[in-house]
Amino acid sequence: MRRDYPASMEIRLDGNPDFGEATCSLAPGEVLVCEGGAMSRMSGGMDLNTRAAGGIMKSLFRAVGAGESFFLSEYSSPKGGFVTVAPVTPGAIVHRQLRGERLHLSAGSFLACSQGIQLDTRFGGLKALFSGEGAFVFDVEGDGELLFNAYGAIVERELDGELTVDTGHVVAWEPTLDYSIEGMGGLKQTFFSGEGLVMRFSGQGKLWLQTRTLGETAGWITPYLRA
Is 222 helix (H, G, I), strand (E, B) or coil? Predict the structure, then answer.
């Protein structure tokens, strides 16, 4: 059966891969949902509404465990206009058009979406709690436009088999991929190799990786701050 999808929101990406930003052109009455504080600039006459997506508890989980803001911002205008959004950290932005698909995002990766996208927060398991990248996974699904961001540049991989990735370098992946969070071998390798926990992916699907991690950058800078 033929399915009619909503018209695509016009989105222009600038500044990739180092300092990405996204300018979203909204039709009259169209709504852009984005991370709190992500707005960089916008046209006049825009209305702003804030909400706790999914209720108080899910918003709390999203803020504490998934690295996202407690409240989401919704921008719209009866006359239309534009909103430019930018992530907190420097890096690339990915624009993905969803047509009923589902994606998993790592903590802190969600930036913005159109109103047809549903957002949910899911506990990633006890090992995720100690991975240093957030205990919760951000699930997105629906029909519309999705924007997510990386720290550094984005590497897009089409996987057919297996791949091991440091937890800090994972940005997003398709649900057709199975994964587990494991140590790098035994206790000695896990705790003293400097690698810590990794995500082992298997199956067929796409995943997006980032070339840098915020934790490693912070660790590199810290000794200079103490000097």
Answer: helix
